[in-house]
Design a protein that fits this description.
- By secondary structure, the chain is of the alpha+beta class.
- It has two domains: about 1-30; about 35-125, mini-chromosome maintenance (MCM) complex, domain 2 (Sandwich), CATH 2.60.320.
- About 30% of the residues lie in helices and about 35% in strands.
- The chain is built from three helices and seven strands, in the order αβββββαββα.
- It has helices at about 1-30, 90, 120-125; strands at about 35-40, 45-50, 55-60, 65-75, 75-80, 100-105, 110-115.
- A four-stranded antiparallel β-sheet has the order 2-1-7-6, with no helix packed on it. A three-stranded antiparallel β-sheet has the order 3-4-5.
- It is rod-shaped and about 80 Å long.
- The structure holds zinc ion.
- The site of zinc ion has 8 residues, from helix 2.
Length: about 130
């Protein structure tokens, strides 16, 4: 009798574990969006579009001599070099999440992640 109860509980536990596993798997697939892109625009025009999961160094050279250098590595994007006066873009943190941007205001350069991982911490904070 007692043994039978234990087995029943085991079955319930198994079911719960399986359910949790399935839910986690579902979340994993929902969060994993295909085709995360890094879009670099200069003065509103697309300068270069590339993949977030493709390590890359992009040099942005404008006709007026303005210069920025962007690095994409292991899903993170940051500005390594620029000859703008404020250097705010170089000081900017690495970006990784969907819709995060690095802006170089003096050069009108915008680096944006599109279709990336949702920043869940940010969503909760809102
Ligand atoms: Zn800058």
């Amino acid at each position: 009798m007692g043994n039978k109860m234990l087995k029943r509980n085991d079955m319930i536990m198994m079911g719960i574990v399986l359910l949790i596993a399935l839910i986690s798997l579902g979340f994993f697939f929902l969060n994993k969006k295909e085709g995360s892109a890094v879009i670099i625009t200069v003065d509103g025009e697309i300068y270069q579009q590339t993949e977030l999961d493709q390590n890359n160094t992009i040099k942005i050279k404008q006709d007026n001599g303005d210069y920025n250098e962007v690095i994409i590595e292991d899903g993170y994007v940051w500005m390594t070099d620029a000859d703008c006066p404020d250097k705010l873009c170089v000081k900017h943190n690495k970006i990784h999440y969907d819709h995060e941007t690095i802006v170089c205001l003096p050069h009108k350069v915008v680096v944006e992640i599109v279709g990336g991982e949702e920043n869940t911490v940010d969503i909760i904070a809102k």
